[in-house]
Specification:
Number of strands: 2
Amino acid sequence: MSEPATIVPGTLPAFTPVPRARQRSNGWNAEVQRAFIEALADTGSVKAACKRVSRAEVGAYMLRRHPQAESFRKAWQAALDLGIQKIEDVAMDRALNGVEVPVYAYGKIIGTRRMYNDRLLMFMLRNRAPERFAGGGAKGMSAVDEMMLTRLKTKWREEWEAEKAAESKKSEAEITASINAKVRKMKERDDEMKRLMAPEDGERQE
């Protein structure tokens, strides 16, 4: 039987990985399971977490349904809670400080301006400080609130995935540049050796 996950509020829980009958190169071994839970806590998204560990979502959900996955399921839920907290932190920061949006004129960007979302701010205050802003109890989200939060989560997830993709491309570019630099250096050494070994003009036979 799996050991229960050790959950400390605000931290990523320790858990017992789901046992695997066979170890496969593309399987869900203990290391992949831990990396998935960490990614889930970072992103709050099963899709993004699976992408980070290069595994299919269907495999993650099948693993969660495993008879010996009790500890893994609890870690999954705790990681999701942490991911949602991070999304809420971003939302609160944007609600308080606003966001820069481009200003266009004649189809061109001529500057930016800071936009504030009062609805988002009140939504965050009602749910984070219900005793002060929601009559002592957290209010359920209205249909408009739910739609807005869904759009925000989608947008932030896309931004996070775009940032990761950019980082990946940058790493690939750096690797390519490093290889090209080594190739150039080897060619320079080769050219230098050829120059040194070439006979002097006076030594060449007619």
